[in-house]
Q: What sequence folds into this?
């Protein structure tokens, strides 16, 4: 079975709720919510590229970590993002989108075993949870 099929079965086995859709190019999008606190969650998107090989490229994106409301703070946000990318995000990277959204992203290549992908998502969730308070404190 392919990685996306194995990943789907893995999520089902762990009873992780997700939305799935096949997207452009035969790629596979899994969208989940990760609860940070009782009243806060982030969207986690996992895109598995279509592949006829024994491996596939995967992109993991944690959305809605922070929304920069004051565009005058953009330089401060970029400095903070650079600082956090150097010290706290590991193999994930923070980005500032054109609409002010700050999101976390990582890329990896994975074989058909879904466990390394799943564990990478778990680590990313912990990273997101740890940096959200700092983003809110320093950027408002």
A:
């Amino acid at each position: 079975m392919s990685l996306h099929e194995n990943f789907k079965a893995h999520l089902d086995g762990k009873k992780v709720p997700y939305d799935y859709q096949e997207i452009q190019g035969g790629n596979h999008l899994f969208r989940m919510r990760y609860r940070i606190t009782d009243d806060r969650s982030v969207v986690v998107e996992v895109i598995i590229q279509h592949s006829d090989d024994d491996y596939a490229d995967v992109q993991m994106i944690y959305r809605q970590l922070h929304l920069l409301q004051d565009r005058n703070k953009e330089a401060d946000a970029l400095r903070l993002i650079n600082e956090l990318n150097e010290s706290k995000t590991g193999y994930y990277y923070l980005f500032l989108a054109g609409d002010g959204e700050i999101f976390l992203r990582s890329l990896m290549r994975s074989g058909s075993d879904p466990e390394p992908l799943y564990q990478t998502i778990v680590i990313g969730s912990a990273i997101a949870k740890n940096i959200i308070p700092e983003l809110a404190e320093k950027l408002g």
